[in-house]
Design goal:
By secondary structure, the protein is an alpha/beta fold. It has a single domain, classed as LmbE-like (Rossmann fold, 3-Layer(aba) Sandwich). The chain has nine helices and seven strands. A seven-stranded mixed sheet has the order 3-2-1-4-5-7-6, with helices on both faces. α5 links the parallel β4 and β5. α1 runs parallel beside α3, α3 runs antiparallel to α7 and α7 packs antiparallel against α9. The radius of gyration is 17 Å and the shape is globular. The two termini are 25 Å apart.
Length: 246
Amino acid sequence: MQWIYLSPHFDDVALSCGGLLWEQVQAGDSVRIWTVCAGVTPAGELSSFAKELHTRWDTDQDATTQRRLEDIRSCHLLGATYHYLAIPDCIYRRHPQTGEFLYASEASLNGSLHPADILFITTLKKELERPIQTDAAFVFPVALGNHVDHQLTRLAAEGLERIVWYYADYPYVLRWKEKLEQMEQEGWLSQVFPISQMGLAAWQDSIAAHASQISTFWKDEHEMHKAVIDYHKENQGIRLWRKLLA
């Protein structure tokens, strides 16, 4: 079977379900990660917010190149192949007419999608509709936490006439569990995929490969390792959801 995981950013699939990808590869499945917001860092002045994030990540002006190299290492650890789309990360996106930054603060990342992003949703839908192996299953983020790039990625899945699963956005899911409960009350089906100790280790290593992003969620790599163990224990594996057809 062929699995195609949609990752809004370079680290989201590794964070949310790296152990599952490793298990699928070991079982002989073909596994790909398509990173949606992987467009090159644009030339010119960045917003103050983007500069703050680059400082936190300890990257230079071209943070995208460094993050892509981290992702390639992460994919190799999982045994997955990678594919990068040309949509820029939201922190770099500008209004096509006014040139203003669409998301120039921490608060704006988890609000409503800017109307100017409709073009990117259309672009992504076209990419997903191109000829692909018929039994390929797409796996999208639920968009827990409402990060705008996660919303953009999920919206591209709506109406897609293919096998579609959804994964819980980790670690945002830790604060949005009630959303998953609501989905199941609405009739969504879920399935738990067991993760072995080797799969758990590969999951942790795949997250650690995204070294620039560790400080976004944890004080250090050790804390990340413990957090992933706790999350794995709580769920007895990694859970995916499917929406029943009407």
